[in-house]
């Protein structure tokens, strides 16, 4: 079986996210078969191992072409089918974009932004909102 280069780039982002989330003690449940626009779920587990039912959906993108520099933030332009799907999904949909040039995973609540009255034509990812020890918990603040 021959895989296109895009497959490996996508896997790189998903695996990088899983590794980072594991580092912070969160459970990442990857979608095990073909997905429409949700790559998995993330569950918050406290430092003492308790689960509080905080779960979000994760959509992962990986590569240099997904982010468009807008100065203080990046823009991600989703396909129309994803916009509609994420906007009505029953869980918060967190968009994660692994950006290899700086080896960071930027993230934003896509469902929230798609349902805001002041809609932008893109999903805004703040440049200071990348996954690290200090920002990891904010995934669940939606």
SSE layout and pairings?
Elements: H1 5-23, E1 27-30, E2 40-45, E3 51-62, E4 68-69, E5 73-76, H2 80-88, E6 93-99, E7 104-109, H3 110-115, E8 123-126
Parallel strand pairs: 3-6
Antiparallel strand pairs: 1-2, 2-3, 4-5, 5-8, 6-7
Mind explaining what this structure looks like?
The protein is α+β, with helices and mostly antiparallel strands. It contains three helices and eight strands. A five-stranded mixed β-sheet has the order 1-2-3-6-7. A hairpin with a 4-residue loop joins strand 6 and strand 7. The termini are far apart. The mean pLDDT is 90.
Question: What's this, in brief?
Answer:
With 142 residues, the protein is of the alpha+beta class. The protein contains three helices and eight strands; from the N terminus they run αβββββαββαβ. Strand 4 and strand 5 form a beta hairpin.
Strand portion, in percent? 25-35%
Main pleated-sheet profile: 5 strands, mixed
Uncertain segments of ≥5 residues (pLDDT<50)?
none
Classify the oligomer: single chain
Number of helices: 3
Number of strands: 8
Terminal Cα span:
41 Å
SS content category: alpha+beta
What is the residue-mean pLDDT, rounded to a whole number? 90
Radius of gyration: 15 Å
SSE sequence, one letter per element: HEEEEEHEEHE
Strand sequence of the main sheet, in spatial order?
Answer: 1-2-3-6-7
Tell me, briefly, the overall form.
Answer: globular
Helix content: 10-25%
């Amino acid at each position: 079986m021959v895989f296109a280069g895009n497959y490996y780039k996508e896997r790189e982002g998903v695996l990088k996210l899983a590794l980072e989330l594991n580092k912070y003690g969160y459970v990442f449940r990857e979608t095990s078969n073909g997905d429409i626009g949700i790559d998995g779920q993330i569950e918050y587990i406290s430092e003492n191992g308790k689960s509080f039912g905080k779960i979000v959906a994760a959509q992962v993108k990986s590569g240099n072409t997904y982010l468009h520099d807008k100065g203080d933030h990046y823009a991600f332009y989703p396909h129309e089918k994803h916009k509609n799907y994420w906007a009505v999904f029953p869980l918060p949909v967190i968009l994660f974009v692994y950006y290899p040039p700086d080896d960071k995973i930027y993230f934003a609540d896509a469902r929230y932004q798609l349902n805001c009255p002041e809609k932008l034509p893109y999903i805004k990812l703040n440049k200071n909102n990348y996954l690290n020890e200090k920002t990891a918990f904010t995934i669940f603040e939606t």
